[in-house]
Amino acid sequence: MKLDKKNIRNFSIIAHIDHGKSTLSDRMIQLSGIISDRDMKEQILDSMDIERERGITIKSQTVSLPYTSPDGTQYLLNLIDTPGHVDFSYEVSRALAACEGALIIVDATQGVEAQTLANLYLAMEHDLKMIPIINKIDLPSAEIEWARDQIEEDLGLDPDEALPVSAKSGIGVDKIFQAVVEGIPGPVSEGTGNFKALIFDSHYDAFRGTIVHFRIFDGTIKKGDKIQFMSNNSQYKVEEVGISQIKRIPQDHLMAGQVGYFIAGIKNISDVKIGDTVTMPNLLCDEAMGGFREPTPVVFSSMYPVSADDYGELTEALEKLKLNDASLIYDKDSSAALGFGYRCGFLGLLHLEVVQERLEREYDVSLILTSPSVQYEITYTTGEIKIIDNPTAYPDPAEISLVREPFINASIIVPDKYMGNVMQVCHEFRGVSKNYQYLTSNRLEMKFELPLAEVVYEFYDRLKSVTQGYGSFDYEIAGYQETDLAKLDFLINAERVDALSQLIHRDKAEARGRTACKKLREEIPRQQFKIPIQAAIGGKIIARETISAFRKDVTAKCYGGDISRKRKLLEKQKKGKKRMKMVGSVEIPQSAFLSVLKTD
């Protein structure tokens, strides 16, 4: 179809987790007719198995929807579906940079939640036009007028513009197309004649190499053009350009304002950087566009291949995954117990789980992860200041004059009946209550200052359970404060296992040590000798469990006769066991390393 630039609309869908972004995308895709009913399935844009299993979106995905308005004008609507989880807000900020507008979804049963507000501020930073949508109106507990009030009070948007829809049953979804066309402005190009585009995503295809997803801000691009990346000046010849309609649909050319992909036989994965500007050597643009701000990792963990021979495979897998997940940061690392691996930085614990699962599924690498930790700031007695995130780098306590740990400002939105429970959980995790305010007659926003190291473990799960799933949680890093830190070591059969070490607040060390020793006792298989498992701070043992030994039945062939014959054989066995204990080393299964990370 012949397209005019003013008939293109680029928009994104943003909302809190589980407010129905992916379901709404499904309905819009179905109504646009780009996919037959036979091929339609739930969460069609969530292409990874892990997204379908967990029912969450991890990667933003683009799809181009054709739409003919009542007056017969043809439009192309580029929809970018985004994640809702706080760990993936980086994906959202990248998607918004390619858009002119956003649909902001509010659940008619739950109202405005923490991530809705966080995403609204992200959209405001990009000056996007926002259209509020009230979803799940078909549920018996839906309160549409209440949701309208919240859109006005909490989001500051016009409640009369809010469209009531049910993404699941399809009620009112057709009105969204016209609202997008009328409410969201078309793309504006600079009109300099030079070529300028922004890379907002990319992924690796085993047959075609790197596939780059980009938004064109100026100029046109077609097959055979020569392009240049501005961050490293590498040049390639374009083999294919096109748009995404679930499948890749090649096009003759793409013009300013369009969102699409190009393939250029890029074999060198490190050439493509998300947030980079693409131009052409013969139509060079004046300056690179402002990319995305580098994501700051908050949780660190080391990854080691289960078999040392797979180190090369892990390196290659991380390179390919980095192409698709720009927020993953990694560096070489090694451990006495586990050999060579990588120290990785993640945006949160869910991000860590997702990366681990994707490496194991998509790249078939078996991994062992160490206990997650955050970055601590250590001031030495000499006055030198260092940042460490790895327990193995923790210095001798005699050399330390001060340790500071990162704190966060947490905003928790809950129905007021759970206020006491939330207070209790936050104080348990060393949190300090800052203030709270009522958003509506029965929902309040509570502000806490919490140590990040506590949130990394199981804070989120606890919060969800004490608020019966109604608590929503959002945070930002607030800086460093002084803390009393201890390094918790684990000894298995009197040998220190560096991969199990953790940095932890001194008050919590004993409880954590006990729990971890119990977990290890369940996971490590029994041997022919006793295995002591100990948790220690420095030279002081604070917890111990023992795995009792198997006993071989040495008296089986000795039936009848004098009891002293049996006793003699048992004594001989006892002596042998003593000797065995002296040299016995223990094999630790992968599950044991993971069990230390999990709490009850």
Give a written overview of the molecule.
Strand 7 and strand 8 form a beta hairpin. The protein is α+β, with helices and mostly antiparallel strands and 600 residues long. It is globular, with a radius of gyration of 29 Å. The protein folds into five domains: 5-183, Rossmann fold (3-Layer(aba) Sandwich); 196-279, Beta Barrel (Elongation Factor Tu (Ef-tu), domain 3), CATH 2.40.30.10; 299-369, Alpha-Beta Plaits; 376-482, 2-Layer Sandwich (Alpha-Beta Plaits); 487-597, 2-Layer Sandwich (Alpha-Beta Plaits). The protein has 13 helices and 31 strands. The mean pLDDT is 79. Helix 9 (419-428) packs antiparallel against helix 10 (452-466) and helix 11 runs antiparallel to helix 13 (590-597). It has an eight-stranded antiparallel sheet. The chain has a six-stranded mixed sheet with strand order 2-3-1-4-5-6, sandwiched between helices. Strands 21, 22, 23, 24, 25 and 26 form a six-stranded antiparallel sheet that branches.
Quick one: how many beta strands?
31
Tally of separate helices:
13
Average pLDDT, rounded to a whole number, is 79
Q: Radius of gyration, Cα only, in angstroms? A: 29 Å
Reported CATH architecture of the largest domain: 3-Layer(aba) Sandwich
Low-confidence stretches: none
The first-level CATH class of the largest domain is given as Alpha Beta
Q: What portion of the residues fall into strands of 2 or more residues?
A: 25-35%
Which structural category fits the helices and strands?
A: alpha+beta
Quaternary structure annotation: single chain
Envelope shape: globular
Determine the fraction of residues in helical runs and give it as a percent range.
25-40%
